[in-house]
Amino acid sequence: MFVAVHRCHAAPSPKDSVCGGASVRYKLDSFLIRGVRPLAALLSVTGLLTACGGGGGAGGSNGTGTQNTYLSVQAQDANGDALHYQWRVTGGVIENTDANEVRWSLPKGPGLHFAYVIVSDGKGGYTEQQYAVSSDALQIPADEPAPVTNTPAAVTEFAGGSSQLTLTSPDTLSFLPPGGGARLPRTVYLPDMQVRVLNGGTVVATGTTDLFGHLNAPKLATGNYTVKCTSLAGHTERDCGTLSVGTDADQAFLQPTLPGTQNLRLFGHVALSDGSVCGIRNSFAGLESAATVQLLQSDDTVLSTPIRVNAYGDYAIDAAVAVNAALKLRVRCEALSLDWTVPSDGSGYASARPIELSGVLPNTRPTVQRMLAVGPDGNVRGQAVLPDSTAHSASLPSAEQFLTYKGQDSRQSSCAYYKSFGAVGACDSQGNPTAAISFNDWKRARKLAPYNGLNAETSATYVNKMDLNLVRRMVATKVASNDIAFYVCNHPGPLTTAQLEVDQVIDTALSDLKQVACVAMEFAVTPGTNNNQPFTKFLTFGPDGRLMLSINLDGRGEKFMPGACVACHGGSQYRGSFPSIGTPSPNLGSNFLPFDTGNFLFSSRSDLTEPMQSAAIKALNYLVKDTATVTQPGGAITALVDGWYSNGTSGSLDKDYVPSYWANNVTPGAAAFYKGVVARSCRTCHAAMRDQFNWDSHPPFGSSYLCGGSRDLALNAVMPNALITADRWIQNIQNDATLSALTLSFLGCTSPSPDPVYPRR
């Protein structure tokens, strides 16, 4: 698609940049993020800062003027509603005004930075659009902050684990599909339930469930607990089940008992007319909105307070009403309000006969036609991030679909995590840190160049094509057995696997261009924590060396630390989120990931080919194994690394390694399935998790985790939990009939099924 882009001079805003003068035809297809490569195409345009003519301000003075980028978005609303705008950025400062045109002052220093606009219509319809701009060409040096050292607060250690409680409807509720047919079961998760966790008669934890029906409990000592709960509608507290806490974090699905006095059981689904749900959940922007339902008599007598519809658009109400009462349900979606008549078959309301009342609200989400950024001279800067609608991941459009299996953090919990081991000095009530360390502070503490001593460094550069499809510049060192550190700087990967393109993106990364972030991992002691034994910690630093609370790894928006890492690195002491109050331990029970060259792409440059880097990758894998002998003795990581290098002293990783369970399995095709599916899409993340999630001996969980289609919406198609991996998995199966047949045999599907009755949104 070609459009006319006008070159203007000294334009103060995007509106003014559309002016007279020479018109340049620019291929906007190069702005689109296609297929399973949501960050890869950010390198398809040679100059993200100066994509349309001229120097984009790079040749000007190093003042604030060249940093100014003017963002505009064009959006439409099919219902004719007035649109509203909220803006957020990962670096620099943006004018967060309710306008479709704003100014963004890019940060000093190089790097790839993201801007986000959320467009809403005031009636529950929300759409987010992302935009990426590189500040490399500005050539404005980043400020070097003064060194920072913090002392973390002492923590209380005890055996146990955190748990995520999920409250659901007490029995199977069957929904009638919108087009008719047989009723299908669908679990209804219960938001806004007040919960108390008791040990004997002592309350040890309290809280309120979120829109997913989750309550993230703090770390609890090993033992058995009873759970009490009540809805915010003022019901009497009821039994909600029991919780057993071991030494690991876990998830418990609990169901409140049904009081005999509540003869009406009403449930249903509330949707907008485009199939989406009312509202939004966006922790980076600090937004949360949902529809509410309220039970009334037909004469407007109030029978319950409003309760929120859950994240999937479902609700469940129980109430004591007259057997033959005339009732209605008031449904509100922000400024939109409708009354729905509660049906009755004439036999009277009885709890044994749940009644469904589902409906559609006359509203659709706004649509974004275009997002554009220009510099002070009117030249286009950067590009919109637009996922390919043909990719498998497009059928799972929720921002929460990926990198969230173990939980989702917030600004507050991310800051609390960093504070727990001294990466920041303090956090305010909004989660904004003070006295944050820089990348150089961290390197200095871990003795990494340019601050190293006698400790050697090992490095490797490659593309992790099956994971995040990023160029990875990996560096590691071992100062002592209890002090091992890795960091990896990430840059967008290639659009294809063509060697020329792989070489180009790696060369770009080695030139320190278009850096997304550097993720640091340390296996070290934090005094007073974990019995003064080393454990794994994660930090993310921006291109300018700033400590970052969040990171966008797959084009699905910002995910907060540490949950974005724990999703793959495992966390036996983490479930749901990191506690944002008190002095919790920073020990997540996580592990480093082994390096699987079967999932990598390498440069053809003589010193960066796979054979030339095989010794370095082996050294990296043995450093990972060194940490695993402490965190997971005799576990899956050790077995995998030993299996890769069981070929003796050659130093090359055995890409055809198959564990004995699969190699000796009598089921036809077991070894081929392991090599084609497990090795490519599963094993490295699962090796880092607890051993019961390990693929060495058997598939670690039921088919709904991959195949979907079950009533347990929270579990459907959550694996693989990385967008690129999920898309590659489907692509590989579609392109290989033999592999497709094996996947069907071992997993029961060749692609995930949608949630029953209503697609997951």
Briefly summarize what is shown:
This protein has 761 residues and is α+β, with helices and mostly antiparallel strands. The protein contains 14 helices and 39 strands. The chain has a six-stranded antiparallel β-sheet with strand order 32-33-34-35-36-37, sandwiched between helices.
β content, as a range? 25-35%
- Secondary-structure class: alpha+beta
Radius of gyration: 27 Å
Main sheet: strand order: 32-33-34-35-36-37
CA-to-CA gap between the ends?
29 Å
Oligomeric assembly: single chain
Largest sheet: 6 strands, antiparallel
Q: Overall 3D geometry?
A: globular
Number of strands: 39
Helix percentage: 10-25%
Q: Low-confidence stretches at least 5 residues in length (pLDDT < 50)?
A: 1-37, 43-63
